[in-house]
Amino acid sequence: MSDTTTQEKKLQQNHKQSPYDSMLARFNQAADIIGLDQRFRDILSVPERTILVNLPVKLDDGTTRVFQGYRVVHSTVLGPSKGGIRFAPFVDLDEVKALAGWMSFKTALVGLPYGGAKGGIALNPKVRSQDELERITRAYTRALKEVFGEDSDIPAPDMGTSSREMAWIFHEYSRIYGYTPGVVTGKPTHLGGSKGRVQATGWGVMRSTMQAIEKLGMDPKKITCAVQGFGNVGTWTAKFLKDEGLKIVAVSDHTGGYYNEKGLNISDAVSYVRVNGTLSGYEGATKISNDDLLTLKVDVLIPAAIENVITEKNAGDIKARLIVEGANGPISAGADAILESKEILIVPDILANAGGVTVSYFEWVQNRRGHYYSEEEIGEKTYPILYEAFENVWQTRQKYNCTMRLAAYVVAIERLATGIDLEGNF
Ligand code: GLU
Prior knowledge:
Elements lengths: L5 H10 L3 H15 L4 H7 L4 E10 L5 E12 L5 E8 L4 H18 L4 E8 L7 H14 L9 E5 L5 H15 L19 H19 L8 E5 L3 H12 L3 E7 L2 E4 L6 H11 L9 E3 L1 H5 L5 E4 L8 H4 L6 E3 L8 H9 L3 E3 L1 H4 L2 H15 L5 H26 L3 H20 L3
Parallel strand pairs: 3-4, 3-5, 6-7, 6-10, 10-11, 11-12
Antiparallel strand pairs: 1-2, 2-4, 7-8, 8-9
Helix pairs in contact: 2-4, 2-16, 4-16, 5-6, 7-8, 7-14, 7-15, 14-15, 15-16
Bound molecules: glutamic acid.
């Protein structure tokens, strides 16, 4: 079966607006604000390492197919590189490079002792059997066995992967080097995963949304919200925001948007997807298109799917007052200025979705100490980190009179540049 569906081809076309260029555009704008020395610009605008692997894997029908995989290490200045692995048909080097850079900025911004990396394999997990996915994941792990390591490069889940794939990576790596749970995070809790990791990114998106709502002086009970993307991040974000009293009027997945002006029953929609695989046919809402969802008249918009869904083409039509980026790179660099002129507040990806990697950090700490925390302890440790990062970005925004996005980059770049400087030149 083909690895690319029609909807995915469309996403792929949007995707052709290079996410890496989008990342670099913001990096350069932030570097200009602080007059960053050329040396740091040169170092930080390219990845430290770019690895491409070709993985011959036997399919269930007996044929062999070669899958292309990537791992890009953007920076290890502040610690071992950290970042997820994405399984999607449109994965390419440009995207993985952008995502790796965002991970370095994210970990630096939040203050974790990590650098940034990202990996990916170009495949459609929906058309691959569990056995095929296991063989592909194990082949990828073997191909990158010298790159991965609990002190060098630590993968985690991202789009199209979950605790299941992380268990395979952990197991395959441990077969080679002996028991090493800290080599990968986002594992099942039975195998050393952390309590709270599954919902961590969505929980963090909710926390930063609530912090932004407070800054804007809005009343949570009167807020309407649309969430684009109903995967791990979108579902948990929608659930947590509903628990906080927001009215979630629309959600979407690759089959389209689902709108109910009275507010959706999120647990009901999640159960529906669990049974049916997608939101298609969900009766608690009216069907709209994914494009319509983005331009709905709502107070808060949460893009939680993929890159470049808000571009120069539709930015002018966005009506939300606040956008919180659950996904990495959902707004193209070209759309930033349009949204800014409309005075829409954007909580940028590297801040908004940092809850995932923060709980990943605590998973790694627990694995290395062999001492495990309760879910409550994880929440108590994670919350102040995310809260402080938000406040820091807010103050930096005021200091430089710039957007939250550029302020977040400024904080991250300053920390990375300081690290590079302190390391010395030789
Ligand atoms: N893939 C997630 C992200 O983009 C999590 C990374 C991690 O936990 O290392 O932040």
